[in-house]
């Protein structure tokens, strides 16, 4: 593994849903083995960006390069191989409710590989151990707390030792202790597997502790890209409003109404 080479590179990336532009001029690189957070306000295009990187969406213009190769030029077989190398953990980390913890983690191994059951068994136990939940194999998802369920989902995400891990708001809905546990696990797994990781998150406090770089989106463009330290010191108004949780800033508190309140009130009188 060449740790100084980019694993993911977005070059002049733009995307529109039919004629509605969502992303434009997006340029950034994530080096192999690094951990990047994608941040930005609601609707700024973070999840859309993740979907472009998984290959679920195709850019309107520009490129997503994976290990130097344009994703758009991947054959169907290459795209399948790309997805197989990826571990994805979505917001609610949904487990299959009718499968036990064991079968949930074994699922991608059974679906995507021809590994014999005894090897799968050892791998499931190792993954459960990695998230601190060995002994829960026979429990059903309904018997787990929210934090435990997220850890099982994380174990399933790493089932096949992904080279690329994508997390979409992995901390949503967790209490502070579970949140700290998940953040620590994600960090340790990124380092242990040396997998390149991207995480969409609103949680500044936890994520700045564990990521190597932050890509900050506003109105569909990258308005800041740098290390957590650079982010804390930046004078970007967008970032400062987000970090400070300020109600007013580049993202205005008030909707830009076409008339003034005074006019409206006078008209009604
Ligand atoms: N399938 C779709 N068709 C049309 N518009 C969409 C579709 N999916 C998302 N959008 C729009 O694209 C914009 C960006 O959405 P996206 O989910 O990428 O934002 P986000 O930054 O992840 O937001 P949040 O933090 O609220 O999850 C939003 O305005 C959303 O309404």
TrEMBL record:
InterPro entries: AAA+_ATPase, ABC_transporter-like_ATP-bd, ABC_transporter-like_CS, P-loop_NTPase. Pfam families: ABC_tran. Residues 8-244 form the ABC transporter domain. GO terms for molecular function: ATP binding; ATP hydrolysis activity. Keywords: ATP-binding, Cell membrane, Membrane, Nucleotide-binding, Transport. The keyword Flavoprotein does not apply. The keyword Disulfide bond does not apply. This is ABC transporter ATP-binding protein. It comes from Conchiformibius kuhniae.
């Amino acid at each position: 593994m060449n740790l100084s080479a980019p694993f993911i590179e977005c070059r002049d990336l733009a995307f529109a849903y039919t004629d509605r532009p969502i992303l434009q001029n997006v340029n950034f690189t994530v080096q192999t083995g690094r951990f990047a957070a994608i941040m930005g306000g609601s609707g700024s295009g973070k999840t859309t960006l993740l979907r472009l990187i998984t290959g679920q969406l195709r850019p309107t213009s520009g490129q997503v390069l994976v290990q130097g190769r344009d994703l758009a030029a991947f054959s169907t077989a290459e795209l399948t191989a790309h997805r197989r190398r990826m571990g994805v953990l979505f917001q609610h980390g949904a487990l299959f409710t009718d499968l036990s913890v064991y079968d949930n983690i074994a699922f991608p191994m059974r679906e995507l590989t021809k590994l014999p059951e005894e090897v799968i068994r050892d791998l499931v136990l190792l993954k459960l151990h990695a998230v601190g939940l060995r002994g829960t194999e026979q429990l059903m998802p309904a018997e787990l707390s929210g934090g435990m369920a997220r850890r099982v989902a994380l174990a399933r995400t790493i089932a096949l030792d992904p080279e690329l891990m994508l997390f979409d708001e992995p901390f949503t809905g967790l209490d502070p202790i579970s949140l700290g546990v998940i953040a620590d696990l994600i960090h340790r797994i990124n380092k242990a597997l040396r997998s390149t990781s991207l995480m969409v998150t609103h949680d500044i406090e936890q994520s700045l502790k564990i990521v190597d770089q932050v890509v900050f989106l506003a109105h569909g463009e990258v308005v800041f890209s740098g290390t957590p330290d650079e982010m804390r010191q930046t004078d970007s108004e967008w970032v400062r409003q987000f970090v400070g949780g300020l109600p007013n800033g580049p993202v205005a508190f008030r909707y830009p109404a076409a008339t003034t309140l005074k006019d409206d009130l006078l008209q009604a009188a």
